[in-house]
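Recall that a protein's primary structure is simply its ordered list of amino acids. Everything else, from secondary elements to tertiary packing, is in principle encoded there. The following example makes that idea concrete.
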Amino acid sequence: MSFLYKIAPHLETLGGELIKCTQQTFQMLFISGSIAFVLGLLLGILLIVTKKGGLLQNQLLYKVLDKCIDVVRSIPFIILMVLLIPVSRAIVGTGSGVAGSYVALIAGTVPFFARQIETVLSDVDYGLIEASEAMGFGPVEIIFSVYLKESIPGITRVTMITFVSLIGITAIAGAIGAGGLGDFAIRYGYQMGFSDMTWVTIAIILMIITVIQWIGNFIIKQTTH
């Protein structure tokens, strides 16, 4: 520890606060990320099955979903977070802090992830889908046994990319009052001029990203055939 205090002298007094902010970042990452994963996956599946030629072709529904995704994705996250404060207050009871960031983090992540899922699922060999239909598989069976099963490596890859992106927007959320490492870096690294705390924050974020990428690459390696 003495070595760390030498290269980051403010760590000794701010260590407790850093741990708290790191825990807040993990909280935002896993709660928002888990919900965004489920919603994004469902939305991505809806996009692929309702498009022209899809299993459940519905051009109207596809166009509505497609346009909504494009609109939300076009809004900068920091503006989106401010716009969703009333919605956050209505759902979780607050528009600030860690809990207050969930709605905006999910809203900012789902459209991006859904579009990634749509792209991954569209790469599935259509011959497999036709063969499944010929065998009498229904739409739900094809979604699970063909689309999702064949796309595990691709889904893992885009999930990994999305979680790395989510880390970035949790930092933005922290900068405007949501807590976490972004808030820590702004308060101590920028406002108080403790540059060592900025570098410590960057190092922690890089370690989190490295772990996520390692887990993702391991899953991809195990499921690629």
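The domain at 11-223 is CATH 1.10.3720.10 (MetI-like fold). Residues 11-50 form the longest helix (40 residues).
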